Amino acid sequence: MGELRFSRKDPNYKRMVMACFIQAVYLLELDRQDQKGEEDGLAPKWWKPFKYKVTQTLVDERDGSIYGAVLEWDRSSALSDFILIRPSGAPRVVLALRGTLLQKPTMKRDLQDDLRFLVWESLKGSVRYVGALAALKSAVEKFGSTNVCVAGHSLGAGFALQVCKELAKHGVFVECHLFNPPSVSLAMGVRSMSEKASYLWKKVKASLPLKEEATTPLESSKEASDKKRLRTEKKWVPHLYVNNSDYICCHYNAPSCPSAADGASDEQQQQHQSKASEIASDVVAKLFVTSKGPQKFLEAHGLEQWWSDGMELQLALYDSKLINRQLKSIYTTAAVSSPAK
Fold first, then answer.
1. Range of the domain at 28
2. Is the distance from CB of 157 to CB of 99 less than 8 angstroms?
3. What tens digit of pLDDT does each residue of 220-234 get?
4. Residue 203 lies in a domain
5. pLDDT digits 0-9 by tens, 194-223
6. CATH number of the domain to which 119 belongs
7. How many domains are contained in the chain?
8. In sequence order, what are the residues at sequence separation of 6 or more whose Cβ sits closer than 8 angstroms to the Cβ of residue 288?
C-alpha cells in the first residue's frame, strides 16, 4: 500500500487514501460473508498501512451486512513506526460508506436502496441513512467537525452526501469525498423535462410583444440581500469525483444553463458565464473530472481508478446544475427554518 505521507499539499494522495478506506468497507463485508476476521481477512490491509484502525462497523439490521465503518487515527501504531504526531491534513476519524455489492447475502438490500434513490432521489427512509447519520453525529460530538471526514462510493456516496447535507443545514460542516455519486433518478428526469419546457416557454414568451413584468423595489432589495447573505456565509464544500463515461454520475458534470450545451451564440455564452460566476459565488463544490480515465462503464464506475496515483483529474470550474440545486437547498432551508426546540 505504500508509506504514509499524508499532507495538505498533496490532495491527490488524500483522495487515494479515502478510496482505500472505502475499499476496506467493501472487503469487510466480503470477509464477513467468508467468515474471516482481522487476522485472516483482506480488509485490514487497506487501513493499517495508513495508521488507522476500525473502531465501529455499521451493520444493516435487515440482513446483517456491513455497509460502513468508522476509522480512527491509531496513535499506538503510529508511535511504533516513530510517527510522533498525526500528519497535517490527516483526519482524526473517517466515516467510510460502500456502494452496491452484487453478492447474494447483501444484494437485495443494496438494490432496494438503489431503487429508493432512483424513484425518490432520496435515501432518508433507509435504515442505512439512519445508521450513517448517527455515526457521523457521534464522531462530530466526540472529535469536532474539523477532525471528521466522510467518504463514500456510488450508493455510499449518495448516503455520504445526504448525511453531510443534514449536518450542513444546521451549520455543521464536515469534509466529504464522494466517488461516482449517483445522479440518475426518475424525479430528476421529470424535473429535467419540466425545466426544458419552462426554458422553451421563456424563449417563446420573450419573442412576443408583451409588457415586461414589473419587479417591486422590495422584491429586488430582498433578492439582493439574500445573495449578499449567501456570499458572506461560510460554505460547505464537498469533493466530487466523476468519470464522464459513467452514466450513473456523469450528470453532475452538466452545466446549469441549457444555452451552454445547445450551440448558443457568443452573447448567450457570455450571459451563461456571467450567471455561472454568480452561482459559483453562492454555491461552492469541488468537482473533479477524469481527463484520461477508464472508458468502459464498469471500470468508469469502479472504485479502483480513484486510488491510482496515475489518475489525471481536471477541476471543473463552471457551475453544475445538479450541485447547484442540491447545495443551494442547504442555505435556503437554513434561512427559512425556525430555531430548533
1. 1-196+235-254+284-336
2. yes
3. 565 555 555 544 456
4. no
5. 444 555 556 555 666 655 444 455 655 655
6. 3.40.50
7. 1
8. 15, 239, 240, 241, 242, 313, 314, 315, 316
